[in-house]
Design goal:
By secondary structure, the protein is of the alpha+beta class. 35% of the residues lie in helices and 21% in strands. The strands form two sheets. The protein has an eight-stranded mixed β-sheet with strand order 4-3-2-6-5-1-11-12. The chain has a four-stranded antiparallel β-sheet with strand order 7-8-9-10. The radius of gyration is 20 Å and the shape is globular. The relative contact order is 0.18. It binds aspartic acid. Aspartic acid (ASP) binds next to strand 8.
Length: 356
């Protein structure tokens, strides 16, 4: 569906154009190429139409649409990409369907420990929080770390203290509780109390072996947004509850700048979702940027190299979203589906869940 959008409008108008019109086509295709301004994700994994109810599917699509509308409202008024990605992620953090903010998954100890990061592609400034339990919207705290501190990452109680001082809304940890995620924890613990599980999974993750992993039935519920604003500046944001039954203090890729989140005006803005340990080890987001910067690859080719080749080769799975300054995008995933959506410069919103 998204591929179709990339076809120049001129293509249809010209049909079997004479050779003399070929140059016109070339010119028009550049001028009329669809320009995306924001891409979001709500996690990738074994998301099959056969195991989804129409109501649930509609709820996910509505959640994605609402997040895109929030981001587009900022961008269309000439706001910054940093404000836009924060706004979109905040909407998904407030939606219990996604594994971020309200609806975050539970740790082995029955707590909700969340991670988030944001990055400004113009300045390369970044902010992140990890292992936080009382900040209603962890992405706002990540933003505060970026804007109001001299640091890039703050964790645990220190991050919470800082977020409170910075004016972020603090809530009781019980705010994040949802019955669905609580039941998931009990299920994983009953199956094997030592294993972790990614959001919505129907099976637990076994430890990685040298050759790869033993369980391929994964789903991920992290949320993320990437955007380019009218000034041509890029930004990325990611927020997550991590993995069900994760050990105390476990941090995934999402808040690690360069692993799950990265933005650089010279290349692109990226937000990842997947089995974090693999994304950290491959420094996925920064490597996509490096492939573009040092190897001259397009955003699409660089993203595919990591998600369709490097990550699965190591035994991991997941996906990412990326956008460059020209509004070219990539949304590869090596799983059955990925909750995702795009909005173009003229406000056209599209959301998708499954492969095609
Ligand atoms: N990447 C996240 C983590 O490992 C999980 C996810 O994408 O759902 O914490």
């Amino acid at each position: 569906m998204f591929k179709r959008l990339l076809l120049p409008v001129a293509f249809l108008a010209l049909g079997s154009a004479a050779t003399s019109k070929a140059a016109v086509y070339e010119k028009d295709s550049v001028a009329q190429k669809v320009r995306y301004v924001m891409v979001i994700h709500g996690g990738a994994g074994t998301i099959l139409k056969s195991s989804m109810t129409p109501e649930k599917e509609a709820a996910y699509k509505a959640g994605l649409t609402k997040a895109l509308q929030a981001g587009y409202a900022v961008l269309s008024k000439g706001g910054t990409s940093v404000d836009a990605v924060e706004a979109a992620v905040e909407v998904m953090e407030d939606n219990p369907l996604f594994n971020a903010g309200k609806g975050a998954v539970f740790t082995n100890e029955g707590r909700n420990e969340m991670d988030a990061a944001i990055m400004n592609g113009k300045t390369l400034q970044a902010g992140a929080v990890a292992g936080v339990t009382t900040i209603r919207n962890p992405i706002t705290a990540a933003r505060a770390v970026m804007d109001k501190s001299q640091h890039v990452m703050m964790v645990g109680p220190g991050a919470e203290k800082f977020a409170k001082q910075a004016g972020c809304e603090i809530v009781d940890p019980s705010y994040f509780y949802t019955e669905d995620r609580w039941k998931s924890l009990q299920k994983v613990k009953a199956a094997d109390s030592t294993q972790m599980q990614l959001d919505h999974d129907s099976a637990v993750h076994k430890p990685a072996t040298k050759l790869g992993i033993e369980n391929k039935d994964h789903k991920f519920g992290t949320v993320g947004a990437v955007a380019v604003d009218k000034a041509g500046n890029l930004a990325a944001a990611t927020s997550t509850g991590g993995m069900t039954n994760k050990k105390f203090g476990r941090i995934g890729d999402s808040p690690i700048i360069g692993a799950g989140t990265y933005a650089n005006n010279a290349t692109c803005a990226i937000s990842c979702t997947g089995w974090g340990e693999f994304f950290i080890r491959l420094v996925v987001a920064k490597t996509v940027s490096d492939l573009m910067e040092y190897k001259g690859m397009s955003v699409e080719a660089a993203s595919a190299e990591m998600i369709m080749k490097q990550v699965p080769q190591l035994g991991g799975d997941g996906g990412l979203i990326a956008i460059d300054k020209e509004g070219n995008i990539a949304m590869p995933f090596n799983t059955a589906g990925m909750y995702r959506g795009t909005v173009t410069a003229d406000g056209k919103i599209e959301v998708a869940i499954y492969k095609n």
